[in-house]
TrEMBL record:
Region (Disordered): 27-47
Keyword Signal assigned: yes
InterPro entries: GerMN
Sorted UniProt keywords: Signal
Stretch forming the signal peptide: 1-20
The protein, known as: Sporulation and spore germination
Segments crossing the lipid bilayer: none
Domain GerMN: 82-170
Length: 189
């Protein structure tokens, strides 16, 4: 009888201990069972570098070679948007109402920005392949300068050829010093 009473008391104490442990407020809630892994919900990629784009404004000439017209390009974001803008200028326009102003085959060799002045260096095809007169030179210089001064941190543009300042491209316009944006050669809507 004493043994039965002892067993009954031990069973009671064991039950009370197990119940008290189950009521511990510091125990984690909804913890996965041992041997299972909790799955993290998949988040949609909403803002990756590949999906972000920027708008660049490039200038091309009207067919009558009188004015420049802005052309907006949407391109993936990158760390050298000014370089991308000049590459788009070199690639020409797809708009049949516009004409590219860059001489065929001209390559940009370098582009740096210092103290709000962009120094854009082209190979010698900028001069050698240029077949235009004064209007062509004005539109070419205007397209380069206006394309680069679309960027808020660029106020002036120095055109270089083979790493050196040039006095002019075809003899009609002074390019020996950094040039400012020209709004008067942009076609108004």
């Amino acid at each position: 009888m004493k043994n039965n009473l002892r067993l009954l008391i031990m069973a009671f104490l064991l039950t009370v201990t197990v119940m008290a442990a189950g009521c511990d407020s510091s125990a984690p809630v909804n913890q996965p069972a041992a041997g299972t892994q909790e799955k993290t919900p998949v988040q949609p990629e909403t803002n990756t570098a590949a999906s972000r784009t920027m708008q660049l404004v490039i200038y091309h000439a009207t067919k009558d070679a009188m004015l420049l017209v802005p052309e907006v390009h949407k391109v993936p974001v990158n760390s050298q948007p000014a370089r991308t803008a000049i590459e788009l200028l070199q690639a020409g326009t797809k708009d049949p109402a516009l004409v590219s102003v860059m001489p065929a085959g001209t390559k940009m060799k370098n582009l740096t920005v210092k103290d709000h002045v962009a120094y854009v260096d082209f190979d010698d095809k900028l001069i050698k392949k240029n077949v235009g007169g004064s209007a062509s030179e004005t539109l070419l210089v205007g397209a380069i300068v206006n394309t680069l001064t679309e960027f808020p941190d660029i106020h002036k543009v120095q055109i270089l050829v083979e790493g050196k300042k040039i006095n002019t491209i075809t003899g009609h316009m002074d390019t020996s010093e950094p040039l400012s944006r020209s709004e008067k050669i942009i076609k108004k809507p």
